[in-house]
């Protein structure tokens, strides 16, 4: 008479254990997105300062500069729009690194930066509309567009999501120490300077963002696929 061996049922805690969330993209795509998004964003910021002036510019000065340099303003808008996809991927990739050791912080950073990038997309959509109005000889309609509910609605998600999310990313990278320490320092210093001072002549804080993003990209590439998937560089 044969007997049948019945394997024991898995423990309840094993059956209920949640699966670890993997990265949104492969490490090579993540690295390219980190550098490309930051580079496009930096180019857009530097060109904005050169064409439209510093953050102390008035609305009238901005419109006058747009009328004088319509092609440059169009280029600013297009650079901003082109930076959106790689910025989104880059932020989500960085959040993956934080989430591996600080799940809640990483998840909050991923959500906030997603909202912030959507606001960033809206801001440059408005800028593109301004460029079209100026090019068509309707510069007088630009102030109404700038003060419209559409323009105001996209500012709040941008400020809350982008600055809040990236602050969490900088703090998370500093705590987890998955990348060289200078990277979260440069990341955090960029946002402090960008909020408090902005560009000073040719010196723009966005160069710090580009440096930090490039540093993260290098660390991701050196990690290999297994460590990247685990989020532990």
TrEMBL record:
Bilayer-spanning residue ranges? 29-52, 72-93, 105-130, 150-175, 182-201, 207-224
Q: Which UniProt keywords apply?
A: Membrane, Transmembrane, Transmembrane helix
Q: What is this protein called?
A: DUF4386 family protein
């Amino acid at each position: 008479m044969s007997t049948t061996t019945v394997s024991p049922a898995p423990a309840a805690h094993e059956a209920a254990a949640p699966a670890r969330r993997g990265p949104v993209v492969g490490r090579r795509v993540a690295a390219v997105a980190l550098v490309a998004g930051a580079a496009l964003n930096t180019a857009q910021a530097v060109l904005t300062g050169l064409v439209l002036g510093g953050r102390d510019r008035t609305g009238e000065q901005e419109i006058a500069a747009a009328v004088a340099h319509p092609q440059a303003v169009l280029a600013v808008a297009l650079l901003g729009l082109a930076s959106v996809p790689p910025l989104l991927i880059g932020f989500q990739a960085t959040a993956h690194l934080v989430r591996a050791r600080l799940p809640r912080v990483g998840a909050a950073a991923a959500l906030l930066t997603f909202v912030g990038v959507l606001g960033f997309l809206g801001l440059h959509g408005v800028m593109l509309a301004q460029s079209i109005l100026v090019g068509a000889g309707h510069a007088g309609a630009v102030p109404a567009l700038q003060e419209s509910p559409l323009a105001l609605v996209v500012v709040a998600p941008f400020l809350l999501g982008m600055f809040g999310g990236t602050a969490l990313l900088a703090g998370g990278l500093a705590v987890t120490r998955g990348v060289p320490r200078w990277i979260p320092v440069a990341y955090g210093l960029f946002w402090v300077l960008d909020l408090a001072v902005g560009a000073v002549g040719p010196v723009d804080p966005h160069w710090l963002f580009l440096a930090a993003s490039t540093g993260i990209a290098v660390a991701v590439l050196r990690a290999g696929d297994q460590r990247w998937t685990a989020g532990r560089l």
